[in-house]
């Protein structure tokens, strides 16, 4: 078992990074690797080279090959991100656009159709939302976000769906309430990964 935690927030003092550290601690003594996309200066821009690699299903740029190797070491992937405009930040979306590509995450052709390739990976989501759970339920924001990521990305690539745990009201005045929300989300994600570890051992 090896878990890759991917966090996207430019502020190292952010709640996103606090959650990352809490989750790392909760997964101890399991093997865990953290990827801070902002600190690593990952380039999310989908270039002409990316476009060609997508169509050819190979010849990926060097930075993408490095991401593939990192993901290939992982049994579990956790995406930790603040919700921007009811979706993921552009940096994380660009990471997915460039990394989860044809020929590696899946294979698709007009003749053979779709063949997902990430069956060995389980993907967990930890979105950090500013609004409360009631607003997300009333407007269908949670369902829309989960459909976009769980179905549109995770299922499409054949990865197993892991746990999804929202942290709501992340900007509320009460630090105690935020701490409880963080503890709950970390407990859900770490519990799912530990349970998988026990099943596989």
UniProtKB/TrEMBL annotation:
<feature type="domain" description="Flavodoxin-like fold">
    <location>
        <begin position="1"/>
        <end position="183"/>
    </location>
</feature>
<keyword id="KW-0560">Oxidoreductase</keyword>
<protein>
    <submittedName>
        <fullName>NAD(P)H dehydrogenase</fullName>
    </submittedName>
</protein>
<dbReference type="InterPro" id="IPR003680">
    <property type="entry name" value="Flavodoxin_fold"/>
</dbReference>
<dbReference type="GO" id="GO:0005829">
    <property type="term" value="C:cytosol"/>
</dbReference>
<dbReference type="InterPro" id="IPR051545">
    <property type="entry name" value="NAD(P)H_dehydrogenase_qn"/>
</dbReference>
<dbReference type="GO" id="GO:0003955">
    <property type="term" value="F:NAD(P)H dehydrogenase (quinone) activity"/>
</dbReference>
<dbReference type="InterPro" id="IPR029039">
    <property type="entry name" value="Flavoprotein-like_sf"/>
</dbReference>
<comment type="similarity">
    <text>Belongs to the NAD(P)H dehydrogenase (quinone) family.</text>
</comment>
<dbReference type="Pfam" id="PF02525">
    <property type="entry name" value="Flavodoxin_2"/>
</dbReference>
């Amino acid at each position: 078992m090896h878990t890759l935690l991917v966090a996207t927030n430019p502020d190292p003092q952010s709640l996103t990074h606090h959650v990352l550290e809490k989750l790392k601690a909760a997964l101890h003594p399991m093997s865990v690797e953290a990827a801070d996309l902002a600190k690593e200066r990952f380039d999310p821009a989908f270039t002409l080279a990316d476009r060609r690699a997508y169509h050819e299903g190979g010849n990926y740029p060097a930075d993408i090959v490095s991401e593939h190797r990192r993901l290939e070491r992982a049994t579990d992937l956790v995406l930790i991100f603040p919700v921007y405009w009811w979706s993921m930040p552009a940096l994380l979306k660009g990471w997915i656009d460039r990394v989860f590509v044809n020929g590696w995450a899946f294979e698709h052709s007009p003749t053979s159709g779709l063949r997902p390739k990430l069956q060995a990976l389980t993907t967990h989501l930890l979105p950090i939302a500013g609004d409360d759970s009631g607003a997300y339920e009333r407007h269908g924001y949670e369902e829309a976000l989960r459909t976009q990521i769980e179905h549109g990305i995770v299922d499409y690539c054949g990865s197993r769906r892991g746990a999804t745990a929202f942290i709501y009201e992340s900007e509320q005045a009460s630090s105690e309430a935020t701490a409880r929300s963080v503890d709950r989300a970390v407990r859900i994600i770490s519990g799912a990964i530990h349970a998988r570890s026990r099943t596989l051992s």
